[in-house]
Structures are given as C-alpha cells and as structure tokens.
Specification:
The complex is a heterodimer of chains A (717) and B (78). Chain A has 717 residues and is an alpha/beta fold. Chain A is built from 32 helices and 12 strands. In chain A, strands 2-3-4-1-5-6-8 form a 7-stranded mixed sheet, sandwiched between helices. Chain A has a two-stranded antiparallel sheet with strand order 7-9. In chain A, strands 10-11 form a two-stranded antiparallel sheet. In chain A, a hairpin with a 4-residue loop joins strand 3 and strand 4. The termini of chain A are far apart. The N terminus of chain A is likely disordered. Chain B has one domain: SH3 type barrels (Roll). In chain B, 15% of the residues lie in helices and 38% in strands. Chain B contains 2 helices and 5 strands, in the order E-H-E-E-E-H-E. The model of chain B has no long low-confidence stretch (mean pLDDT 93). Classes of the chains: A alpha/beta (717), B alpha+beta (78). Strand 12 of chain A pairs antiparallel with strand 4 of chain B, so a sheet runs across the interface.
C-alpha cells in the first residue's frame, strides 16, 4: 500500500507565473533606493547586461503581480534629463525607445526618496513631458517619519496632476502590495498633458509638436529648444528657421542658459509644492544622527577614513589567507592525484599543470577580491564612499584630478579591472582617462605573491622602530605604486590630457544602514564578473605558458643524463633536475635565452627573464614559473624556492640575486603593466587601442628604467 | 557676500547666481537656485571643498564655483 504524502503548499507561495505583457522603466535620483526597490520587486528574477555600444549596465527583471506580470528595466540613477553624463544619456535614450534591442517602455515608475523629495520632484516634472503613463514610488517613507518629516500624499498627488503616488518602504515591505496592485493598471494612468512646473514652456512645446508633424515627439522639441540634443536643435532650426527659434528661446529663457532657466522655473514650483505638502517637525535629532554629523566634520572624518582603510587592508590580507591556502592546497593535491592516477604523460601534465594550476591561479584571488568588494559595496551602500571623495578632493587636486578619482584608485588595490570600470562616474573624459592610466599603478593583489617571495628571501627581518624591515619594504612598495599613479596623473594632466580644472560637484548621500539583500546581490554580480573576465584570460595564459614550458620534450638520452648525475639523490631531486633540464630546452627557456641580452643591464639571467616574460599576460604566474625554472617543482614551498634563488649564480660564479638586482626587480613589478585583463578593460572603456598601447609602453618603460637605474647605481656602490 | 565666505554652520539665502560657469549650471540642476535657503555643513581640511545642505540633500562643491553664488546670511536665531 502506498502512502500519499500529505503535502501542503501555501497557495500564495505558488502563484501563477504570468508572462510579462508590458515593460516599465524604473527611474529616479541616485541613492533614492531604486536598486533596493528593484530587488524587492523582482527578487532573483533579474539579468544584468550592458546596453549595446555603451558601458552602462542594464538590469532587467520580471515582477509577478496578482493578475499579470511586467518587465522592469532599472535605469541608472539621474538628477535630470539634460544628458550630463553617459548614465544620464542612456536613461533618456531608453525611456525614449532610442536604444536598439531595448523595448520602449510603456510606463514609468519614478522613484522619489521621501527624505529629500526636492530633487526627485524636479526629475519627475521633466519625465512627465515624455507623456508616458507615470506613477511614483515614494521610498524610504519610514526613514522620513523617523527624521520628523510628514508628507501629505494626497496633496502631493493633486499637485502632480493626479498621477498615483505610493509611499513604500523597501526595508520593511510596507506599501509594496499597494504598489504592485497599482502596477497592474499602470498603462491606464492618465498623465497630465501640461505638467504644472513650467506651463508656458510645456504649452509652447506642445503647440510646436503639433505644428511640426508626425516625426516629432514633444520630448524631441523640448530637447531641441533646451539645446541638450545638438542634432535635434539643428533639425528644429532647419524646419522653423534659425531666427524663429532664437526668438522663441529668448521669450522662454531670457538671457540665461536654457538649463539654468529650466532649473529656476521647475525648482521654484517644487519649492512651493514642498511648502504645501511637507511638514518638518522641529529638529529633534537622535543620538545616531548626531554621531554621524559629528563624524562628518573634517578631522573626525579624516581620522575615520584612515581607520577604515587600515581595517579593510587588514581584512583583505589576514582573513583571506586561510581560504587562499586552502584553495592552493586543494588544487595542487588534485593535480598530484590526477598524475598518480593517469601516469606521467602529456595529457596528465596538461590537466594538472595547465588546466588545474590555471584555474587555481584564478580562484586563489577570489577570497581577497570578494572581501575587498564586500567592504567597498558596504561603504557604497552606506554612502561612505562619496564622503571619501569629499575628504580626498584636496589631495587629488594637487595632481590635477578631483575627489571622484579616489574611489577607482582605492579599489585598484584589489584589482585594476573593476576599478577602471568604476571610473565611469567621472564626467570629464580627460580626467577619466588620466584616472584609468593611474589606477594600474596601485599595488593589486596579483603583485603580492612575488613581493612576498622576494622580500622573504632577500630582506632581513630586522626590527626598525615598531615595524620590521620586511614590513617597511612592503609598505615602501605600496607607496611606490601610489607615487607612480599620482605622478602619472600629474604628468598627463599637465600635458596630453590638459583640460579645464575639474569641478567637484557631487551629491553626498546621508549615512544609511546597508541592506543585506542589496549587498549580497551586488557581491554575487561582481564576483561573477571577475571570474568571467579575469578568469578566462588568466586561464588561457596559464595553459599557454604550460605549453611553452612543456614542448618540445627532451629526448631519452637527455632524460637519462639527468637521472645519473648523482646516484645518491632521491627520486624527488631527480624529478626536479629533470624538470629543470626540460625547462632549459623548452620554448620558454629558448625564448628566455634569446631575450637575456635585453634584461642583462638589469642583472637578470635567462631564467629570471623567461619567468618575467611569462608573467606579461598575468603577473601572478611568475612565482609558479620561477619554481619550475629553478628546479624545485612548481609545488615547492617558498622556503626551498627562496634558498634556490639565494644560491643561483651566473656561469662565472657570481650571485644573480644581489640586493640591487632584487630591489630593481621589485621596482619593475611595482610599475610594470603585466596584465592582459587590465589592457582589455582599458581598451573597452576608452573605445580604442590608443590608450592601452600607451599604458603598456609607458609602464613597461618606466619599470625597466627604474630597475636599470637601481641595478646599475646599486652595483657601483 | 558669496557662498564661499560662509563659515561652517551658517545658513544663508541664495540670491544672484552667475551662470557663466558650466559647473554652476550643474549645481542649479541639482537644486541650487535663487531664493532657497542653504546651510554650509562642512569644509574639508585645507579649506576646500565645501559641503552645502538644502532640503535634506548635501552637495559638495569647490570654492571656485561657490564664488558664483551671491548669498544673504541669515543671522542665527539663538
């Protein structure tokens, strides 16, 4: 007899999956709680991609409603539709249906932060000119209440010409059901024909649209009049005559720039609405708010900044170590196990030394990168990163940049790839390129293995004050990277990238508790991007290096030679001797010997040269290659590799690794651009080969130059 | 008197705005228009940039742009 299990499924939990029938664009100011609301509405039913042709991320998700479903496109946070930055241009173009591959939205969900509706209402009034069904989500309503703000929602709705306003809190979930019910009927919403903030202007635009005919929409006319879209402005002058347009502009804007006139008119109206619908209780400030205000003061804020910086570095370098050791141990054990199972042959070597070692060399950086990203995302989510820019603006000004370059440079200490992508917030192209070229100088986590190896082997562990000499050298290398980056920015900003003095106009968001779901989703996204972008490149290189070192194979006679050198030696030593002999006659070894003359002025022999060459695509493979070349096997612990390096000699018996040579090698690593992933990212973000080629030539030259000067001068002393 | 002459904690009303600098127009788009009341929240170490608060928002700007905003200081009431 079979028993039927009694399964109870909550009916609300199953729901019926509807197919989305409309696309709604989610738009609002930066930090208005847009992403949190998006995650809350779509859950994990979302995808992230780039808008075609631009490096702006496109988040797409589906919202399941009770009777239907809609697609939600999350647009970048914007303050206005005037196209100030790449993000703003894409937001406008998506809402207008100008972006290929993205359906024109049939409605807008405008997100306004209840704690500062001032800028939110300004954007909303601009959006109403699009004449799309529009509704408002008034987010952070409980935060507003907590800070003594009451908003008369009905009054606001009336002032906006009747479009629905839903107060919600994405944290507590308050109001979300009503919002979802509202979304169900979004396409039937009547948007006022003439938004209330600047009726003369809207009316003029409406009449012109009728007069101009079918290929003009009202927003086109508006962009033409405001001169925010040069092509449309030209077309308008052509159709109406330049004089008519000029007199229209004079009538509407007087003698001020169009954007200034628009701001004056609309904000004047917004101010009136706020006086009518918003009440601010007499300022009572909670302890927390007062504490945040105190820490925002110059000195406490700067001290806090350095404390946070130290904490982050401490976390990245100590918390990650056990995980990195575990990954390292697992991948080498797996490799060894494979070789014992399959025997020594080309295929097992390919799997163990190529594939597994390659994958291992990528994921070993994942713990550090995830920890660093976790901190950066939390700092971003709390609004602290923007504060950092404010504090460091003064320093960045001295090299011709602004505080907005601080965030990319800080994240470059983990990896230059995401940091170069983070430069998108910098509005000026020249400032952005200068930042992109400075970022790869920061000491990324891939430089650490070689620093650690060389410092441990050649720098004595003597105490110097409260630090020790090894720590001091490592600190010096970090400093060298920072100086290289800032010096490069200064150089470029006073020559090739000379431009107007950067302005530092930035909204400083209020301190806010981080939202766990948002942090988790962002961390997952960035981790995946890292594995995909950096992973594929490093992986391919590791296999390439493996092939160069594996082929051509030694013949049997040579092999036997390595086995009879010393009959007393252990199997392990004989294996190592064999590996070294193989390396010396492999393609990699041959290339190393060919290019030895190039690096001889730096004091490098063919072995160091070929290790460095193999590191050009991805610098972190150097330690493994050195291990193989110096015949300790790539699995050797650092101890034995250090000893081998210390006793390595030229054919005439002189030591190779002298102090000047080692210091030069360290400087070379601090400044040289040995990372294909970084080059590929620079190419993508600057839209061409010019800057990546420049970056590579420039950084390689000064790395070589620095090592040359140190070795030559040091050897003379 | 301009916005650049205020001390931390001062409140003032924005009066004449000189729109010849593109940065100033950006600040207007962010809401810094005539007749609104602003508070100078903080000045970074070194005397620049400034943090200005209005209607619950905070905006940072440099002194170069702050000089384009004529203000009338509101005397502290207590």
């Amino acid at each position: 007899m079979t028993e039927t299990p009694d399964i109870k499924i909550p009916v609300s939990g199953i729901g019926i999956r509807h197919k989305a029938r409309a696309t709604v664009a989610l738009i609002g100011n930066p930090n208005a709680g847009k992403s949190t609301l998006f995650n809350r509405l779509t859950g994990l039913r979302q995808t992230t991609a780039n808008f075609p042709g631009v490096t702006v991320e496109k988040h797409l998700g589906t919202v399941q409603l009770e009777h239907s479903a809609i697609n939600l496109v999350d647009l970048p946070g914007v303050y206005s539709l005037d196209g100030h930055s790449a993000d703003e241009r894409i937001a406008v173009d998506v809402t207008l249906g100008r972006v290929a591959g993205t359906e024109r939205p049939s409605g807008l969900l405008v997100v306004i932060d209840a704690t500062h509706i001032y800028q939110g209402l300004y954007l909303l009034e601009q959006l109403l000119e699009l004449q799309l069904p529009t509704m408002v989500a008034l987010t952070m309503i409980d935060a507003a209440t907590a800070s003594g703000i009451t908003i008369d929602v009905e009054g606001l709705q009336t002032a906006l010409g009747g479009i629905p306003v839903f107060p919600v809190s994405s944290i507590s979930g308050h109001g979300l059901d009503e919002l979802k019910a509202g979304l169900e009927d979004i396409t039937t919403i009547d948007t006022p024909d003439i938004p209330a903030s600047w009726p003369e202007f809207s009316e003029t635009a409406r009449q012109l649209t009728r007069q101009l005919g079918d290929d003009w929409q009202r927003i086109d006319v508006i962009q033409a009049l405001l001169q925010t879209h040069p092509d449309l402005a030209g077309k308008l002058s052509q159709q109406l005559g330049a004089e008519t347009v000029a007199s229209l502009r004079e009538k509407l804007f007087g003698d001020s720039p169009p954007a200034a006139a628009e701001a004056r008119h609309r904000y004047h109206w917004v101010k009136g609405v706020i006086e009518e619908v918003q009440e601010q209780a007499p300022l009572y400030r909670k302890v927390g708010v007062r504490l945040v205000r105190w820490t925002n003061q110059p000195w406490p804020a700067t001290l806090l900044f350095f404390a946070v910086l130290i904490l982050v570095f401490q976390a990245v370098f100590t918390w990650a170590t056990p995980m990195m050791d575990a990954i390292d141990a697992t991948s080498s054990q797996l490799g060894r196990w494979l070789v014992t199972q399959m025997g020594h042959n080309a295929f097992s070597s390919f799997l163990a030394d190529g594939v597994i070692a390659g994958v291992g060399s990528v994921i070993i950086f994942l713990p550090q990168i995830l920890i660093l990203f976790l901190f950066i995302i939390i700092l971003e989510d709390t609004g602290y990163l923007a504060r950092t820019s404010f504090l460091m603006d003064r320093v960045m000004r001295s090299v011709g940049l602004s505080g907005q370059s601080v965030i990319p440079m800080l994240s470059s200490f983990a990896c230059a790839v995401p940091s170069i992508m983070a430069t998108r917030v910098i509005p000026d192209r020249k400032d952005r390129i200068a930042t992109i070229l400075a970022a790869p100088f920061m000491t990324c986590s891939a430089r650490l293995p070689i620093y650690a190896l060389l410092i441990a082997a050649f720098v004595p562990n003597d105490p110097v004050g409260w630090m020790n000499l090894q720590g001091l050298v490592l600190f010096g290398l970090y400093l060298l990277g920072i100086l290289g980056g800032l010096g490069t920015a200064l150089l470029l900003k006073s020559s090739a990238l000379k431009g107007p003095k950067p302005r530092f106009i930035l909204a400083l968001p209020e301190f806010r508790k981080p939202n766990l779901q948002t942090v988790a989703i962002k961390l997952y996204g960035r981790g995946r991007i890292f594995l995909k972008r950096a992973g594929t490149v490093i992986f391919v290189i590791a296999i390439g290096v493996w092939a160069l070192a594996y082929f051509p194979r030694m013949d049997v006679a040579q092999y036997q030679l390595t086995q009879v050198v010393n009959p007393e030696s252990s199997q392990f030593e004989r294996d190592n001797a064999q590996a070294a002999a193989q390396m010396s006659q492999s393609w990699l070894g041959r290339i190393g010997r060919k290019i030895e003359p190039v690096f001889k002025p730096l004091g490098w022999d063919w072995r160091v040269s070929s290790a460095v060459i193999s590191g050009f695509p991805a610098r972190e493979v150097v330690v493994a290659v050195m291990g193989t070349i110096y015949a300790v096997g790539s699995e050797a612990d650092d101890q034995s590799l250090s000893q081998k390096l210390r006793s390595a000699t030229w054919p005439d018996g002189r030591l190779i690794f002298t102090l000047p040579m080692v210091l030069g090698l360290l400087v070379f690593y601090a400044w040289c651009l040995q990372c294909v992933a970084t080059l590929a990212t620079i190419r993508r973000e600057t839209n061409g080969w010019r800057w990546p080629i420049f970056a590579w030539v420039y950084m390689t030259s000064i790395g070589y130059g620095g090592a040359f000067v140190i070795y030559q001068v040091g050897s003379m002393l | 008197m301009t916005l650049a002459d205020l001390a931390p904690g001062d409140t003032a009303t924005l009066k004449q705005i000189n729109t010849t600098d593109p940065g100033v127009i950006r600040l207007m788009v962010l809401g810094m228009v005539e007749d609104i009341t602003v508070r100078l929240e903080n000045i970074a170490i070194g005397g620049d940039p400034l943090e200005v608060g209005f209607f619950g928002s905070s905006i940072s700007l440099r002194k170069e742009q702050a000089r384009y905003f004529e203000v009338t200081r509101i005397p502290a009431s207590d």
